Amino acid sequence: MYMAMLAGGQIIQKLVKKSFAPPAGEGLNAFAFNVKSRMVLRNTIKDKINAVPRDEATTQLILAESMSCFKMNNQVVRSLDGTKNHVLKFMLKWFVIIGLIIACIENKELVLALQQAARFYLVTGLRAVQLLGTLENQQDWSDKLNDEQLASALSQLLALYSMQEQAGQKGYCRVDAPELEAVGEFVTYDLLLHADDPQAVGWMLRKLSPRLRRLPPVQRALRTFVALQTDDFHRFSLEFDAMSLLERAAMLRPLPRIWTRSIKMMNKAFGKQDRFPLEELARWMLLAGINNDGKGGKQAEKLCKALNIQTQRHPPPSPPPALPTRVGGVDEAADSWETIDVVDGVAELVTKERTKPPSLGFAQFKLAPVHEKMDPELARMLVRDVAFRLEAVSATKEARSMTELVMKGAREAAS
């Protein structure tokens, strides 16, 4: 507390140096200020307030609360003997009121900038996965540095949110400010980014208020974290499917580990005679959507190859049977209208079978030892395929460019 007050005393001296004349002395005696004039003090505070742009109501609030901090005798203190509580109260009121109010005003633009920066780093990570597929292309790119920049932006945002929430409880700031409506979004990003680190998530939860912990996106991030830590990959896939594009971008990094552990669990569960469809495996491994419509078989085949799981493709489909032809609108093989209806029904069934996507093949477990780790190059290619698919799915749901996705906070606040 002594060091905090000493540091705070230097700030106050700079802020109101025209109004106070600190007497000689060392240590805490530096807080024994002499007030030259109440009018000089008021004008000094007013000048400092006017230096920061804000609305008139907030200006009056700051001015009133500032003056209440300095409603003391003309001689504040000559000596600290018996006045320690008085000085401590003076210091705390100054920092709680002035610090919170001015921070709420000045941090608005900082909050918007950090929000855009965090979204930008998430988009950059997604683009890097999509465009830098091979190790040779990643020589000038660092996933670690991008993650560090993202973590730094999110950490600063959470600190500002906490400050705003404290000020809102005291009535000095608005808790429903436009730039703060997205608080759940960025708390979610921070939780997902550290989903592999239970200690970091636990520390974040200690700092989050009950209101923030109850937000729907934060709840989804916590369910995802629990599913990941307990190897509940079915629950993980359901939560992953409900995420936004940027939330999924934050979860691309753990996918190879999820694939490896899932395949090992399936290898223990299934027998040698079981044949698991590749398209269904792709759906389980998030290589295709929940309603995949028979897609993702090739990606699932690559995944099995990377982990030494045997696969077998189905033979190509046989050509459709020849149907009776019509000449002049009459079927050659039909002697009555009943036969014509039967032929039409067969033609309809054949058409449906031909339009149904065929299964590529199946996987068989326990035929060979499962690799402990995936080949990094092949894992990177699979993650790239997932990243492209996620962006394509997002584009069909919400037509937004990446620039609009990054800048949405500023545009919504301006509108």
UniProtKB/TrEMBL annotation:
Q: Is Transport given among the entry's keywords?
A: no
Which intervals hold domain SAC3/GANP/THP3 conserved?
105-310
One Pfam match: SAC3_GANP
Q: Which domain of life is it from?
A: Eukaryota
Sorted keywords for this record are: Heme, Iron, Metal-binding
State the Gene3D superfamilies in the record: 1.25.40.990, Heme oxygenase-like (1.20.910.10)
Could you state a single Gene Ontology molecular function term? metal ion binding
What protein does this entry describe? SAC3/GANP/THP3 conserved domain-containing protein
